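As the next step, I wrote out a protein sequence along with its fold in token form, included below for the reader:
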Amino acid sequence: IDLKCSGKRNRTEFIPTAQLTDRNIVSDYRFLEEVQGTSESTKRLKPAGEASGKGTNLHLLRAQAQQRNTELMLQPEGMQRRRVNTTYYDKKRKRIRWHVEWVFDSAGVTCVTPGMEEKMLVEKALGEHLTPHPSDTSLSHRLRNYTKAGVQHLGVFLKAVRCPANQKLFFRLDVNKPLGEQLAGKALIEFPTIHVALPEDAHNYDCIDLEEAVGAEAPEGEGGEGLRDQSQPQEQPSPGPGLEAGAENAQDQSEASIEHV
């Protein structure tokens, strides 16, 4: 008698195909379901900021951005920009590495720099996307007009998020300056979205400066969902002149009725 036997079948034991039965197949199927359920529950138990596997300390990242006078607004877990954001704070070098989205509007192309160091010049990061890549000739062909114009002649615009929902406004960036320096005084939703324009299209982008951006409305719509502060009490409308006059007339009629009686 084997006293060490637990009485449970070894569910991972190899069974030749010729000996497989319906009972074995059902058992294996249920075993796979249990494994999947355990894996999903483990993911849900991970702390916020680590569930996506990025290992980013969000509180530290926001604090470092604030020290640089950059307002970093984060979306709830599951939102598109939250899912794709790879921005993190490099503790060793004490620098923020930004996830940067480059939008080439006239070509219909969007490229990403997953970890652009804040001290890097905009020209260098943009130039990496415009350098022809033998492995991706299709992308190089679509961006050929930008490459031909040259980085120094392109219009580079940071999308402003604190502006009325019915307007698209931008900050013009200097390609000869570091990205981090030009994010000071600006607000971001998760990461910078930078639009790149050909010289002949640059006039189509409505630009503002920091003074104009102060006091603008909080972001709304798809990009700013869940970010608007609704904790402030809403101002109640004051009665208009018509309402005041109506109240006075009612009071006069009431007094006249009393005197008549």
In short: The CA atoms of residues 69 and 185 lie 5 Å apart.
